[in-house]
Write a structure and sequence with these properties.
The protein is mainly α and about 90 residues long. It contains three helices and no strands. The longest helix is centred in the last third of the chain and has 29 residues, at about 60-90.
């Protein structure tokens, strides 16, 4: 087992793919991992949406949807505020 870091050769650490199985340059490896992550997230969200029954939403009434809308707005506004604060503090 080599003790040298793969970063010294401009290669990304490929431990998640298995030792030595992926020798892609850092730029492509990072980009491909990010795209794969986004694809998996989209597939999971689609699966949740496809398994939702409209009748269950109708039975629950409007209150859960109103709460979900409020929480979504709260998360967006809170995330924006945190980003602005961090950018302000970082200069």
């Amino acid at each position: 087992m080599s003790t040298r870091s793969s970063r010294s050769h401009g290669l990304e650490d490929d431990a998640c793919l298995g030792h030595g199985s992926s020798k892609l340059p850092r730029l492509f490896n990072g980009f491909l991992r990010q795209q794969f992550d986004t694809l998996l997230l989209a597939m999971a969200m689609a699966a949740l949406g496809l398994s939702t029954h409209v009748s269950a939403i109708r039975r629950a009434g409007p209150k859960p949807l109103i709460l979900a809308t409020f929480l979504f707005c709260w998360l967006v506004a809170g995330g924006a505020a945190i980003n602005r604060l961090v950018m302000f503090l970082m200069g």
